[in-house]
Amino acid sequence: MSSKTLSPNKAFPKSLRMLNASDYQAVFNDARFKASHQNLLILSRSNASPVSGGVPRLGLVIAKKHIRLAVQRNRIKRILRETFRHHQQELGGIDAVVLARRGLDQLDNAQLHKLFNKQWARIIKKASQADTNTGDSPKRT
Question: Could you report the per-residue pLDDT of 104-114, keeping only the tens digit for each?
Fold first, then answer.
């Protein structure tokens, strides 16, 4: 299947990935929106920088310490990328780092989809609330 046959929101190009340590460090240092679950933590921040262009970007931290088998790490990453692509229009200009915790590999695919979709919805809600709080509030002098 060529890349021309994919719809724009189904692809996962480099522009949607966090590629270097400084990108990750910026999110770790300034995580404005957090979504936590016993098996997962999502840290995110607005990425209004000219480098990102206001598109959502995803970074994954799936440690071997927490998810022992490579096949399980790859399955989790695949499902995470898939749910991210489905929510990328609503996410807007957000950098998100997903950290896996112990036990995430015990969930089946349907449970992972449900969990990730719920966490993305929480991030979207928090980001939209922050946008309305900063955009509509009058300036104080």
Answer: 999 999 999 99
